[in-house]
Amino acid sequence: MSDKIARRRSKIHGNGVFATAPIKKGETVVRYTGRLLTHEVADDIYGGEDNGHTFLFILNDTYVIDGNVRGGIAKWINHGCAPNCEAFVIEDEGGDPKKDRVEIEALRNIAPGEELTYDYGITTDERITDAERALWACRCGAPNCTGTMLRSTRKGRSAA
Ligand SMILES: C[S@@+](CC[C@H](N)C(=O)[O-])C[C@H]1O[C@@H](n2cnc3c(N)ncnc32)[C@H](O)[C@@H]1O
Ligand SMILES: [Zn+2]
After folding, report:
1. What is the CA(100)–ligand 1 centre distance, in A?
2. Pocket of ligand 1, candidates 50, 73, 79, 136: which has the most ligand atoms within 8 Å of its Cβ, to mutate?
3. What is the pLDDT of residue 123?
4. How confident is the model at residue 158, as a pLDDT?
5. CATH architecture type of domain 5-121
6. How far apart are the CA of 47 and the centre of ligand 2, in A?
7. Where do the structural domains in the chain lie, given as residue ranges?
8. Is residue 53 within 6 Å of ligand 1 at its C-beta?
9. Ligand 1 within 6 A of 140 CB?
10. Ligand nearest to the CA of 118
11. What beta strand segments (E) does 39-139 contain?
């Protein structure tokens, strides 16, 4: 795991992660690592920093993984609207939420030089405001790019 990837400057944003060798569809590429924080502690530490940049990964209802501390290379993987990878939360067999883990798996064969992306899956049940859309603007460059890393799960339109 993770011997076929490297961190490089990305056209999407800042640093990204690129394949350095062929990666096969279904292969587990890397694990998302970092310190474990409860949602409450993460909110205390980072809640005021709503600038659209985050190294936090929601692990489960109790914990988030904070890639800022003890984070591995996976924290540099950018979001994509036509991703070539997917992030899976693997639940601990013993039911301990602290032991759940996140693995990034290839959705298709990936050639050396390609940037790895996965759908961050950031959802809100509120309507997305223009300000939020700008803050979380997506620059993945995919033909189907939605222009934002956020997705609203809100059903229908309100008359208001
Ligand atoms: C986990 S970091 C990924 C590494 C990041 N490129 C960097 O150099 O810090 C996540 C942040 O990267 C940026 N990012 C990731 N995917 C993006 C995209 N498709 N378009 C624009 N910015 C993106 C956003 O600021 C996001 O909060
Ligand atoms: Zn996009």
Report:
1. 24
2. 79
3. 87
4. 44
5. Beta Complex (2.170)
6. 25
7. 5-121
8. yes
9. yes
10. 1
11. 56-58, 63-66, 78-79, 85-90, 101-106, 117-118, 122-124
Q: Counting atoms of ligand 1 from 1, which one is nearest the CA of 55?
A: 1
Q: What is the pLDDT along the chain (160 residues), one digit of tens a residue?
A: 679 999 999 999 999 999 999 999 999 999 999 999 999 999 999 987 777 888 999 999 999 999 999 999 999 999 999 999 999 999 999 999 999 999 999 999 999 999 999 999 988 888 889 988 999 999 999 999 999 999 888 876 444 3
Mutate to test the pocket of ligand 1, among 53, 57, 122 (most ligand atoms within 8 A of CB): 53
**In angstroms, what is the span from residue 136 Cα to ligand 1's centroid?**
9
Strands (E) in the chain, as ranges, are 5-9, 15-19, 28-31, 35-38, 56-58, 63-66, 78-79, 85-90, 101-106, 117-118, 122-124, 150-152
Closest CA to 19 of 6, 38, 10: 6
Distance CA 155, CA 150 (A): 15
Distances, alpha carbon 13 to alpha carbons 43, 58, 90, 122, in Å: 24, 21, 28, 17
